[in-house]
Each structure stands twice: as C-alpha cells, then as structure tokens.
Amino acid sequence: MKKILFITGGAGFIGSHVVRLFVTKYPDYQIVNLDKLTYAGNLANLKDVEHLPNYKFEKVDIVDGKAVQALFEKYQPFGVIHLAAESHVDRSIANPMEFIMTNIVGTVNLLNAARHTWKDNFDGKRFYHVSTDEVYGSLANDGSLFTEETPYDPRSPYSASKASSDHLVRAYFHTYHLPIVLSNCSNNYGPNHFPEKLLPLAINNIKNMKPIPIYGKGENVRDWLYVVDHARAIDMIFHNGKIGDTYNIGGLNEWTNIDLIHKLCEIMDRKLNREPGTSAKLITFVQDRAGHDLRYAIDSSKLVNELGWKPSLQFEEGMEKTVDWYLENEEWLNNVTSGDYQKYYETMYSGR
C-alpha cells in the first residue's frame, strides 16, 4: 500500500513544482493535491503528471475545518506539506481578512486535523509548513542576512498572517509534540508563476509592448530563488530535516528591482530580436507600495551544511530558462491572463 502524502496548494506556482517532483521521484507515495483553486491555482500547471497513478486531486478550502478533517479521515496521510496560502502583498493590503482566514485559520484547521487523525501516535509522521522570509521584516543595505534566529517583524497583512501561522505551527510542536518542520524562503521565480508578480508580469508586458510598472525608484532588494531549487530543498527538509527545526531557503542572489528588470529587458530584447534598449523604454515608475520593505536576503548556511542543499542554477541561467518557458508557453500565459484556465477545470472538477 502506498504511503499517502498531502500537499496543500499544489495547483499554485511553488506547489505545482513540489507536486511534480514528489509524484515523479516517489512512485511509492500517493500524492494528494489539496487546493481551493483560487485565481492563483491552475491545474494546467500539472497536466504533465495528472495522468500518473500516484497523483490525485481534491478540491477543498482549508478554511472549512470539517472538510479538511473529512479528507484526513478518508486518506489517513502520513505527512503534510503545507503550501496553501494567499500570498500577494498588494492583495493583502486591499483585503487583509482573506489572508487571515486562509493563512491563519486554514493552517490551524490542518494542524488540528493532523493531530486528531494521528491521535498522538506521531511515529513516522511529519507536518511541514512552508513560509516566507517576509516574516522577518526588512533589512538595511548593510550586507546583513536573515537567519533562523532573526526576530519576527512582519510589515504587511500578508507577512503578519504568515508569521502568525509560523508561530501556531511551532506552538503545536511545543504544546502537543506534533512533529513539524518549517522553512522560510526568499522570492521564487521560474515557470508557471501567476503574472501578477514582478517577473512574469514584466515578461508578459514586454512581450506585448506594455509599460513595466516599478514601485518607487526600483531600489528595493530581493533575494531570488529558482522555484525548482526550492522544491528540491522542500524534498530534503521533509525527509531529513530535524523535527521542530526551521530552515531558511535563499538563492544568495540579491538584485534591486530596477537592476533585475534591466537584466530581463536585455534578455527579452535578444530573445525577441528587438533593438537593444527597446524593452527598457517600457519601464514606468509608479507610486511605491504601502509599507514596502527595503531589502530581503537569506542565509541558507544551515540548510547547506546540515542537509547538503545548494542551488542547481546560476541566476543568469535560471532567468534564461524562465524567459524561454514563458515564450514557449504562450497558450498557458494567454489562458491565465484571460481567465480561461479556470473555466476548463471548473467543469472537470465540479462536484468533487
């Protein structure tokens, strides 16, 4: 009998890469993808693995505690990798309650279901909560890095909701001895990223000769991590991370937003056979985001030293692969930007 593993948010950007890795690498696991299919959930991200016998999809809103408990009782999973979350900072500023419900209440529902289903018999069980570096707040431009011991200082409703869920996961470890591991990652990039985020938005706008909006002066700094390398790290932490511990996952790859976009413009001009400098003319500075953190940068040395992880790609190679994917998957991008991607799967999974 296959061991059953729940992956929540598996139709999303990072989640789909984690599902793909686990489905193909662990044929002795039955992977059950739990996803609400919000705007950011797209089952087309998994078309290449949805036919495999060890993959199954269940449409569920983790805010619905009874539905979550029912799925735990039905499948009796040995593990959970929890990625389901509302994640866009701008949306959290406009509608914080949605983030509180999904990211906090939803996480508690999963924790409760795991605890009650496993009935304090935690041998061989594991609850892995995937979080963000944004819980740490903002760094100065002084070379400092977020470590696993950095105090939490969230600045947006999104990061505050994720910080709360992190604390609750750790509380269930200390109070109930639930076997948890936790990771905090930097900005991900790569294929299947919903085009509201900086890089896929810029790629799509450059392709269509539309303005590229940049907050403020573009001086905010982010550490960029290729999504496939993040999925590899999640695999290592899930299987070999120390129970109760936290691992930071970063790319050691800091770029200001404006430098990043200039680099992307160079790549796009070359790929689209445009005159050098054509895409850069599309850069448009807009009013800065409220509470915009200046800089994020992660120290991944614990993950590197204890579990042997390291990024597989240099950033320039990762950017080339990312741009190539979006240019080669025009149908995927058009379906997402038009909203058509939701109609097909609404029909397929209605009533499930």
Helix content: 40-55%
Give the low-confidence spans: none
Report Rg.
20 Å
Q: What name does the CATH topology of the domain at 3-193 and 224-255 and 294-314 carry? A: Rossmann fold
Name of the CATH superfamily of the domain at 3-193 and 224-255 and 294-314: NAD(P)-binding Rossmann-like Domain
Average per-residue pLDDT, rounded, comes to 93
Report on the structure:
This protein has a domain at 3-193 and 224-255 and 294-314: 3-Layer(aba) Sandwich (Rossmann fold). The chain is of the alpha/beta class. Helices cover 43% and strands 17% of the residues. The two termini are 24 Å apart. The chain has a 7-stranded parallel β-sheet with strand order 3-2-1-4-5-6-10, with helices on both faces. Strands 7-9-11 form a 3-stranded mixed β-sheet. The protein contains 12 helices and 12 strands. The radius of gyration is 20 Å and the shape is globular.
Task: Please tag this protein with its features.
globular, 12 strands, seven-stranded parallel sheet, 352 residues, three-stranded mixed sheet, alpha/beta, single chain, Rossmann fold
